[in-house]
Design a protein that fits this description.
With 299 residues, the chain is of the alpha/beta class. The protein has helices spanning 36-53, 88-96, 105-116, 176-179, 181-190, 201-209, 213-237, 253-266, 286-296, and strands at 2-8, 12-19, 24-31, 57-64, 68-69, 74-75, 100-104, 125-130, 134-140, 143-145, 241-245, 276-279. The structure holds zinc ion. It comes from Mycolicibacterium arenosum.
């Protein structure tokens, strides 16, 4: 037996087949188009293809960029403008004839890492993706935590700067405005990093590795903001592990060394002193594996 999995993001859509043990047996992805029915066309094609590679299937798990609405089974991703209240659960159920369960992409990433990745020994875990934006999801007492509408775990919008810049969410001073890839690169350019305007966090990481002091400071500042956000969430949720994936986390030590160092500054309470922060290990597969896990769990 196996499960169909779907991962919907602003830049790509992926579908897969995941075995009951969490092995990803099939995976395919396509770029996310701009138009409402064209996006659905990609989902339809990928799911139909995935279904064709599998034997008996028990259900479909969907991880989608948010916000989502679990009550209506709809998604309105900020970075997919053509999908506002898109009825993804009904459409996928109709297409596949299978039971469907929906979750946020951050939740699915966290669940995937907890099942088959870096979080296998954790029961209270925050999964974070630091990339173009910052997303996340919570696994609490071993179970995915949805929240009231399915949007719990939006850790990118923990406020770390009370006088901070406006965020894409409409709020101000969110950690995403300081520590997302584009935010880190923008800060570096504003502070003397000599690079073309389109340079991103990957190029900044390359500069930091050659010892560029502004690039190093930019990563240090981003890592510090993430540490502050993590300490806040850990104090609220009594966590034992944070797993971080995404493009910015690929810089490994550049992010993790200052992050762990500054975390000791923000995490004051005794019960979060032992909090561990580890790199994700499943990469882009975590969302599919976690979506499949979600589908196997009872509502
Ligand atoms: Zn925000």
């Amino acid at each position: 037996m196996a499960t169909l999995a779907l991962d919907i993001g602003g830049t790509k859509i992926a579908a897969g087949v995941v075995s009951d043990d969490g092995d990803l047996m099939h995976r395919a992805q396509e770029k996310t188009p701009d138009e409402r029915e064209a996006i659905w066309g990609v989902v339809e094609r990928l799911l139909t293809e995935a279904k064709g590679t599998a034997g008996e299937l028990t259900g479909v798990g969907i991880g989608s960029a948010g916000p989502i609405d679990l009550h209506t089974g709809t998604v309105s991703p900020i970075n997919i403008h053509a999908w506002d209240d898109f009825p993804i659960v009904d459409r996928v159920a109709e297409l596949t004839g299978l039971p469907v369960r929906l979750g946020g992409d951050g939740l699915c990433m966290a669940l995937g890492e907890q099942w088959r990745g870096a979080g296998q020994d954790a029961r209270f875990m925050l999964g974070m993706v630091v990339s173009t934006g910052i997303g996340g999801g919570l696994v609490l007492d071993g179970a995915p935590y949805d929240g009231r509408t399915g949007n719990a775990g939006h850790v990118g919008h923990v406020v770390v700067d009370v006088d901070g810049a406006k965020c894409t969410c409409g709020g101000h001073g969110c950690v995403e405005t300081v520590a997302s890839g584009p935010s880190i690169a923008r800060w570096a350019r504003d502070h003397g990093w000599d690079a073309p305007p389109e340079s991103n966090a990957k190029e900044l990481a390359d500069a930091a590795k050659t010892g560029d002091p502004t690039a190093l400071r930019a990563y240090y500042r981003g890592a510090t903001a993430i540490a502050a956000a993590i300490a806040s969430v850990a104090a609220v949720c009594d966590l034992d592990l944070v797993v971080i994936g995404g493009g910015v986390a690929k810089s490994k030590g550049l992010l993790f060394l200052p992050l762990r160092e500054t975390l000791t500054w923000y995490a004051g309470l005794d019960f979060i002193q032992e909090l561990r922060v580890e790199p994700a290990v499943l990469g882009g597969d975590a969302g599919l594996i976690g979506a499949a896990k979600l589908a196997t769990l009872a509502e």
